[in-house]
Design brief:
single chain, about 200 residues, alpha/beta, Rossmann fold, five-stranded parallel beta sheet, 8 helices, 5 strands, about 10% strand, disordered C terminus
Length: about 200
């Protein structure tokens, strides 16, 4: 029992250390970019693989549903991970490296935002999506770990979890999703009050 408890505590300590080391300035900048995207009616696209795909879906849901204030809607958000038919079609026809980029090629507009999530920072299909986003003059937000990888250098704003383990990195990214969504909601609420509107309470 003690061995199990020690392993659990060790894991929790590593996640806590990675959370404490986060760059809050970069996180705040991400919140600002997402609020600005909402104000100009831009679309936010999110992508990732494996556990990061689950985080991408979760983030899309939280930004779309969790960020509205009263009659004001949340962000227009699309998780590029969510259509199995599209993923398998593009994967079969052009290869898995293109499954996100080809969706952006069809859907994205200038001024939209891509949130690219890759624990290693080097996932080929995520980096291909970043290239496609740049070609369309989109803003790129990168969430990674393992020192950042190529994604950290390619993103306009990057947050790198200070860990070389997939579990803690993915935990940090999911935590960031919740922190960002809550902060976006608070920012929308503040802007609504400044404009003299009365936001209704929503769950």
């Amino acid at each position: 029992m003690n061995d199990i408890r020690n392993r659990l505590q060790s894991y929790l300590d590593r996640v806590q250390a990675a959370a404490t080391a986060l760059d809050t300035r970069s996180i705040a900048r991400i919140v600002e970019l997402l609020i600005a995207a909402r104000q100009r009616d831009a679309t936010v696209f999110v992508c990732g693989n494996g556990g990061s795909a689950a985080t991408a879906s979760h983030m899309a849901a939280d930004l779309a549903k969790g960020a509205p204030v009263g009659p004001i809607t949340g962000l227009r958000t699309i998780a590029l991970t969510d259509s199995v038919p599209l993923l398998t079609a593009w994967g079969n026809d052009l290869g898995y490296d293109r499954v996100f980029a080809e969706q952006l090629r069809n859907l994205a507009r200038t001024g939209d935002v891509l949130v690219a999530i890759s624990a290693s920072g080097n996932s080929p299909n995520v980096l291909a999506a970043v290239d496609e986003a740049h070609a369309r003059a989109m803003t790129v937000i990168g969430l990674s770990g393992f020192g950042g990888g190529r994604l950290a250098d390619m993103a306009d704003v990057a947050v790198v979890a200070d860990s070389n383990e997939y579990g803690p990195v993915e935990d940090i990214h999911l935590m960031l999703n919740h922190a960002i969504a809550e902060s976006v909601r608070a920012g929308i609420t503040a802007a609504t009050h400044r404009n003299g509107q009365r936001p209704d309470t929503c769950g």
